[in-house]
Amino acid sequence: MSAERPAKRRRFTSDIVTLKVGESKSETFTIHADTLKQHSPFFKAALDKKWREGQSLQVDFPEDEPDTIEAYLGWLHDGKVEAPESPGTDDLTFPFLAKLYVLGEKIQDNAFCNSVIDKITEVLDSPEWEDSSPGFSSSNIIYDGTPDDSPARTLFAFYFLHYGNFKKDESMDRLHPAFLRDILVLHSSRKDPTPNAPLSPKRQEWHKKT
């Protein structure tokens, strides 16, 4: 046990980093540097003392929302991904989860991305979403913020191909071109899943390597 104590002590006595969020940078969060560096290659590189962020102990996220950063910090604390619950026409759940996944891609935290995937499949399997589907805005967030080989793209294309209920008020021309391409590719090699089969048991198929 004595070998573990120095590591724990370093974790809780490391530098405090300030995260400034939003275009005006008016929202701020603070967290131990070692916690960020332990989980994220992005933060490990950014907080190197040879860079401005490492010297100032400040990292700016002008394109992100405070709720997104707060949810990530919450996950670092307790390992839980929290999202608003709003099945039905006013979908707040999946745009928020999509933004969390894009943040995970940005900061290169694969474990966080996998936790978001787990949450997405959990919510999609819940009875509250049985007669509803995420809107196109969620898939657009994913496709605008992730690389071509992102597992989240595969999950969204798979879901909309096999389970999605396209909303009557959403025009197909709002589909991201790459999203439509991925749906067509999956359709061409289509193997229909068991009807109403839950997604959660398949979630590791959409995980990143950690």
Brief write-up:
This protein is mainly alpha-helical. 50% of the residues lie in helices and 8% in strands. A hairpin with a 5-residue loop joins strand 1 (16-21) and strand 2.
> What is the helix fraction of residues, given as a range?
40-55%
Largest sheet: 3 strands, mixed
What is the 3D shape? elongated
What is the distance, rounded to the nearest whole angstrom, between the alpha carbons of the first and last residues? 26 Å
Rg, rounded, reads 19 Å
Number of helices: 10
Strand order of the largest sheet: 2-1-3
Structural class assignment: mainly alpha
Number of strands: 3
Whole-number total of structural domains: 2
Q: Low-confidence stretches at least 5 residues in length (pLDDT < 50)?
A: 1-10
What string gives the helices and strands in order?
Answer: HEEHHHEHHHHHH
| Overall average residue pLDDT | 87
SSE blueprint:
Elements: H1 4-13, E1 16-21, E2 27-32, H2 33-39, H3 41-46, H4 52-56, E3 58-61, H5 66-78, H6 93-107, H7 110-125, H8 136-145, H9 151-162, H10 177-188
Parallel strand pairs: 1-3
Antiparallel strand pairs: 1-2
Give a verbal description of the structure.
Strands 2-1-3 form a 3-stranded mixed sheet. Helix 5 packs across helix 6, helix 6 runs antiparallel to helix 7 and helix 9 packs across helix 10. It folds into 2 domains: 63 residues, no CATH class; 144 residues, no CATH class. The protein is mainly alpha-helical and 210 residues long. The longest helix is centred in the middle third of the chain and has 16 residues. The radius of gyration is 19 Å and the shape is elongated. The N terminus is likely disordered.
